[in-house]
Write a structure and sequence with these properties.
Blueprint: H1 9-31, E1 39-43, H2 49-62, E2 67-72, H3 80-85, E3 91-96, H4 101-104, H5 107-125, E4 132-136, H6 138-143, H7 149-157, E5 164-168, H8 174-179, E6 182-185
Parallel strand pairs: 1-5, 1-6, 2-3, 2-4, 4-5
The protein binds adenosine-5'-triphosphate and magnesium ion.
């Protein structure tokens, strides 16, 4: 007996609709044949940028590949991902920031710290053995002009062919957005902090 024989009219229409949908999706998947190293920019005011980037570190490790994480700006509070991921084989994790400008209150030191971090990041961006480079909160270094776009863009552009790069931070510069293959702007609809809830371990850090 055919499996469509005892279907109701609604079930039959659903089957036909989903069959057509699957054909469209399958055709799109079949058309995407390119493999290449990607640049991703995760920006916007909503929560979820850095945690998404660190999630891709976990995905990378799942394939036995390697990742290098550079955390710019933030040096004060440690995130849970660092405690876990930096202990895994195949991960290097550099904390190259000393907190936000309003915490350090020392412009010259902030710029020197940012530059030293960028020098290390450039090494990872030149290393074909590194599958994924995370440049966490890089957008601020560009926006504060601690680093010029002429310094930042070429090492990203000239990286090894299959290396992926994830850049996070609010207000990504238009040139970073243009360089990227994938850009997500996370919108801030609601955040518990505004209801007086402090940062929660495992969620916010
Ligand atoms: P996460 O690391 O949780 O993915 P993020 O990278 O998108 O967050 P950041 O701007 O780097 O966001 O801020 C990190 C910290 O600030 C986290 O504790 C996060 O919960 C909090 N945060 C993020 N967005 C907001 C917001 N819109 N209002 C208040 N706090 C926020
Ligand atoms: Mg972040």
């Amino acid at each position: 007996m055919s499996d469509t024989q005892d279907l109701t009219e609604e079930e039959r229409r659903h089957k036909e609709r989903t069959r057509k949908h699957k054909a469209v999706v399958d055709a799109k998947i079949a058309a995407a044949k390119v493999d290449k190293g990607l640049v991703l920019v995760l920006t916007g005011n909503g929560k979820g940028k850095s945690s998404s980037a660190f999630g891709m570190v976990a995905r990378t490790l799942g394939y036995g590949r390697t990742a290098a994480v550079f955390q710019f700006i933030k040096g004060k509070e440690d995130v849970g991902e660092r405690a876990f991921l930096s202990r895994q084989p195949g991960v290097t994790w550099e904390n190259c920031g000393e907190g936000f400008t309003w915490e350090t209150q020392d412009l010259r030191r902030d710029i020197a710290t940012a530059r030293a971090g960028w020098e290390k990041a450039k090494q990872a961006l030149a290393d074909p053995n590194v599958s994924l480079v995370v440049l966490d909160e890089l957008t601020y270094l560009v926006n504060y002009r601690y680093l010029s776009l002429d310094e930042v863009l070429p090492p990203i552009r000239n990286r090894p062919e299959m290396q992926h790069v994830v850049i996070t931070g609010r207000a990504a510069h238009a040139d970073l957005v243009e360089l990227a293959d994938t850009v997500s702007a996370i919108r801030d609809e609601k955040h518990a902090f505004r209801a007086g809830v402090r940062a929660q371990a495992g969620i916010d850090l």
